[in-house]
Structures are given as C-alpha cells and as structure tokens.
Amino acid sequence: MATRLSITSRQRLWQVGRAATTIAARDTLRRIGIALTPGPSKDAAQRARTLRTTTDVAAAVAGMRGLTVKLAQMASYVDPAAPDDVRNGLARFQDAAPPMSADLALGVLRDELGERLSRFAEIEEEPRAAASIGQVHRATLRDGTTVALKIQYPDARELITADLEQAPAIVGLLRFAFPSMRVDDIVAELATRVRDELDYRREAAVQARFARAYAGHPRIVIPRPIGALTTSRVLVTEWIDGAPFASAATLEPEERSEIGEILFRFVFASLYRLRLYNGDPHPGNYLILDGPRPRVAFLDFGFSRSFTADEMATFEALIRARVVTPDRHAFAETLRAAGLVIGDDHDDDVLWEFFAPYYELVETPGPRTVTPAWASGILRHTFDRSHPLASAVNVPPAFVVVQRINLGLYALLAELGATADWRAIAEDIWPFVARAPITPIGQEEAAWRLERAR
Q: Which stretches make up the ABC1 atypical kinase-like domain (predicted)?
C-alpha cells in the first residue's frame, strides 16, 4: 500500500522537484552557451558554468535538512582536488545550516525536559552551530558546568522521511555540481542510518562508549554526554572550546602531520579495538585544541556503526593477505567470500591491481605525504564506471560505511598535507600485528594504555 505524504512531505517533494527542474533548465542553457563559445574560450566558459551551477545547488539545499545537507557536506570536502570555487559553494554546510528561532528552540526544550529545564542557569539564544537535524547552543548548568545543548528541529522526523522518499531528486541536484561522482551507494548507506540520528538517546549511548574508551587520552578528547538531561530530541554534553578544523592550515607542517596521525589513529583504533566507527568524518565535527601539543576533539556521534566479529574477521583477512603477508590468491578469495566481487572468473592479478589504491597508503613502509592529487585519485577510482571490473565490484553494507570513512579521512589528510610512516602507525594499531610504536603520539598512547590497564 502506498504511503500518503504529509502536507510538509508533499511540499518538500515539490520543493526539491522544482529546484531540480530549474537547475536542469539553467544548466542546459549553459551547456548550449558553451557549445556556441569559440574554442579558446571554452575552458573559461566551462569553469563559469560549474561555479554557477554549484551556486544554484547551494541555494536549493539551503532551506533543506537531513539527508540533503549531509550530501552537501560530503560534496564540499570529499574531493580535495575539486576546484576551490566548487568546494566553497557548498563548504558552509560543513558546520552550519539555517537555524531555528530561539522561541522554537525553547519550545522543544520545554516539551522534552519539563522540570529538568530548571537545571540550566543560562542558555545562549544564538546557536553556535546548526547541522542537518539540530542545532547546538552553549549553556551553563546551575552547578557552573558549561555544556553543549543540541536541540532537534521540531519537524526533523517528517523532513527526514520526506528526504528519504525523494532521495533520487537529491542525488540529481548534487550530480549537477559533481557529474562524475556516483553518489547512489552513498545515499543508500545514509538512508539506512539517518533515521537512527533522530534518537539522541542512542547518540548519547554511543558517545558515552567513545568517551569511556578514550578517557584521559593524551591527544584525543571526547566530550562526555550527560544522560540525565538527554532525551530523544535533546542531547547535553560537556562543552569543548576549540578552533575549527580549518585553523590547522595556519600551523607548521609538523603540527599538521601530528593532527593527521591523530585522525588516522582515532579512525582505525576505534575500528579495530572498539569495533565501532564514528561515521560522519566531515571537518565540522573536529576541533583543534590549544596546548603545547596538537590535540583533537571529536564531536557528533549520531551517525555511527558497530561491526560484528565476522565483519572484523573479513577486514583482518584482507589486511593480512594484502599487506602483512602478501598473497594474491588469498586476497582474491577473501574479496569473493566477502561479496566485494561478483563472480569467480576474474583473474587474481587483475583483482590485486584494481584494489591496490585502497591499500597504497599502508602497503609500503617509510614516510609518505598525503596529497590532494593522491586522495582525489582514490575518489575517482572508486566512482569510475569505465573500468572493466566496475560492473563486477560490489559494496556490501559494512564496506559502504568503511569506504565513506576512508574517503573522508584521506581528504582531510590531504588538506593537512600530513606526512607519516602510515604503515608503521597501522601496524601499531592492528591488534594482529601490534608492533612497538615509533612515533611520539604512538608512544604516548602506549603509555596511556599501560596506565589504564593497571
């Protein structure tokens, strides 16, 4: 039986459909204009078309929430080699979306907290950040504790439902800005999990796991959630003062590399030691903290995924066969068993070469600088449908999440220009290798783990 759209959902669907039609019409006219442009001027005309179309997309997305904004966030940072004009057109969605009014936010707080609202001594009216389904205010409890107060938009559930119902239209919007990007798998992965983000109690539980796991870490800070003040639509956590990720651009290369190592360690240590991923790796979720040594605070745990023992066994088998003790046949067989490749008629050597970019960073020992060109190359390889193997490569659910994290991480490492011996760091993290750490951060972390174990 077909589900009837609510008035808001019908309006939402009409809004996106109208935006897609308008942008398509404008883009068609621009393409015709380029076709009529003399040869020497075609490149400039094409660049102008890309920028103008990106501006149209940003304007259309500006009044939307949920899945739409998440896709805009990803498009703004995932390809570090994209033109600056294109990235900047959507970059404001990394840490901001149109906020709701102070009265509306207070109404949500009253409905959700009731008498518990009296525990707050002060709540700033202007939000410090506004994201896809909620906005964050700085507040002070009566005991003097400064907290981050995340308030969900009243219509978030309905709007996300509408977003999911017309996801193909959203894909169409983003394709005008990034025509070569195959976003269908990303949208499907987001659609299966974005509803989980609506329950802030779930997010608080996941964040509490991360906070406990990294309590006292010398370089990683996770704000602790305050469960007594958290509901399905209100999340209260410790407040963390820090600078936005973009501020890292002003640091020395060595400091930027240390930040890159912190990000790398957080992602893969969380995977291999906690079997847990924080699946939203955009720059708005990271703060650079003051201090004598670079530290990073990690925010927003709404989009997280845990992994089963079988899934982890597959990740380990691939790493072993590809990197630790290279074995082309074992690697190919693991790919097939995991469902990453459909069919048994593909040569082991062909599979080895096709999947090489995903392991290149950790395959060879020694220092390596992550560049925009390299990170962009992996992205383009991922979405290249012209490769003979493209039609045979499958992306099981667990790998959709992992690949999204990897692409986001590589883009951030490239933005930092981070240099490190990534193979040595990975072997320090992988529990099935567990080599002695060689970097100062690794040694600090080892000492921290030893102290926790006492």
A: 93-333
